[in-house]
Amino acid sequence: MSFRVTEEGNGAFDCERPLNGIDVLAKDGRDLGNIVAWRVNRYLRPLSWEVSEDCSVSFVDTSCFEGKEVYRRTLTFLLVLACRKALGRDVLVRHSLSDGYYCEISGEPLSSSQVEAVREGIRDLVARDLPIVREVLSLDRARALFEAQGNRDKAELLRWVGSDPVETYRIGDRSGYFYGPLAPSTGAVGVFDLVSHAPGMVLRFPTVAYPSRLPPFQAPQRLSDVFLEYAGWLDILGVGTMESLHHAVAAGRGTELILISEALHSQRLNRIAETVAERPGCRLVCIAGPSGSGKTTTSHRLAVQLAVCGKRTKILAMDDYFMERSRTPRDADGNYDFEAIEALDLGLLNTHIADLFEGRPVRLPRFDFLNGTRDSGKELVLEPGEILVIEGIHGLNDQVGSGIPEDEKFRLYLSPLTGVNLDRHNRTSTTDNRLLRRLVRDYRTRGKKPEATLLQWPSVIRGASRHIFPYQEKADAMFNSALVYELSVLKGYAEPLLRVIREESPVFGEAARLLDLLRYAPFIPSDNVPNNSILREFIGGSCFGV
């Protein structure tokens, strides 16, 4: 029985036998190039996936976010194999660092010669271009396989989630589970590097901004220290992976994890407030971070901690200084570029900062995100001795508060810098955390449909890379706004929003990926989330009215 395959942008043809993605490419005389997967009826599939009924298909290459994720998952599998062969040890993928993955061998600092041995092992796998075989196993068989390989965390997480059957991938005699499709062979990930970064190493790969080469590598030591500190804290709590988080929640420790996470935030903010209070002449605190960091709540909580230290404050939100929609700049794709500093009325902002420091009252603007217009807001006066706290994505940019002497400023950078990994080989993305936060908040406070948030997100990421991340090392302090339990709480809010995105949407694949991520997180109700929590900025119920 024949069926029809319709390739988006390339016509349709009839088939008499099942075909996979490589077959379809060969039918048109095309080679793989940088193609690593394909979409079948909008669902992301490995190229080995066979079609045997009428369908629409499109190919996924490494120029898009989905393709990059396939590339990174595949390269991570090669890293696992190379560490096993070169070091006889399993690798732990910790967190992102300078467009790469920081990885460790538990309890063992790596020498440069060991890192070189692993790098050569990956190069050998790439050169051999070994097939990466997709295998669908029953849940019990997959769990037994990973137990036998020493991957107990994978086996236990599969048990908690109850996925049956399980889609695994195999290179030679070693199997892996990477929560998404992999490339068809090891030769597909030839652009990479592995560099030493004590006590571990950083696996580097192309990005969307650098699709065919490696981006510049600048490992920010202070940011790395924040990551390592938090990872060590998770290890002490015993919740470094989703499997261990499931155990904690099942044991009735959900509320305990919420309280401990919030106490850590309070402790960190208290230390930052003490540092500000002890700095002579400090009059301006600038808080910056990418979208979804929790800047607004952090500004209010820091103001509270400064009050404890005997310092009075006033807060100014840079979001209210957005240009009206008709004056907002656009990016290369013609979309509004809200991340560019030109999207702010910088002249008005700096005028207001100068007036406040001169003791003059200012009438603050109030930006209406629904209509893209700016109205008149409340009047603000900075009294003698008060500290002005301003928050916004460009808080660390020298153009903000340019008339204020540097020794009177304190700069704070924040972001949810790491979270609970899925397992030892699969990290949860800081970017995904921020996206889920924003998805929930934008729907709740700005009337924005989930599809619109997902469509805009690539532009947000590009903007952060250009306008925010380059300034993070200028900060006087860094605050990790991640919460151990947040994915478990966001799950109940984000899943219904993601499920309304229809199959014909261009972001359906991204919605499906996020839903797949959330199903590995145990559910924790939001009842016990404190009303001053950063998470309340996104899910609602904040005592700060945000």
Secondary structure elements and pairings:
Layout: E1 3-7, E2 12-15, H1 21-27, E3 35-40, E4 43-45, E5 55-61, H2 65-87, E6 92-96, E7 100-104, H3 112-128, E8 133-137, H4 139-149, H5 152-161, E9 166-171, E10 174-176, E11 193-197, E12 200-204, H6 221-237, H7 242-250, H8 254-278, E13 284-288, H9 295-308, E14 313-317, H10 346-357, E15 362-368, E16 373-380, E17 387-391, E18 409-415, H11 430-446, H12 450-467, E19 477-480, H13 486-499, H14 508-518, H15 536-539
Parallel strand pairs: 1-5, 13-17, 13-18, 14-17, 18-19
Antiparallel strand pairs: 1-2, 3-4, 3-5, 6-7, 7-12, 8-9, 9-10, 11-12, 15-16
Helix pairs in contact: 2-3, 4-5, 5-7, 8-9, 11-12, 11-13, 13-14
Estimated radius of gyration: 25 Å
- β-strand number: 19
Q: Please list the strands of the largest sheet in the order they lie side by side.
A: 2-1-5-3-4
> How far apart, in Å, are the first and last alpha carbons?
59 Å
**Which structural class best describes the helix and strand composition?**
alpha/beta
How much is the average pLDDT?
Answer: 92
Total helical elements: 15
Summarize the entry for a quick read.
The protein has helices at 21-27, 65-87, 112-128, 139-149, 152-161, 221-237, 242-250, 254-278, 295-308, 346-357, 430-446, 450-467, 486-499, 508-518, 536-539, and strands at residues 3-7, 12-15, 35-40, 43-45, 55-61, 92-96, 100-104, 133-137, 166-171, 174-176, 193-197, 200-204, 284-288, 313-317, 362-368, 373-380, 387-391, 409-415, 477-480. With 546 residues, it is of the alpha/beta class. A five-stranded mixed beta sheet has the order 2-1-5-3-4, with helices on one face. Strands 14-17-13-18-19 form a five-stranded parallel beta sheet, with helices on both faces. Strands 6-7-12-11 form a four-stranded antiparallel beta sheet, with helices on one face.
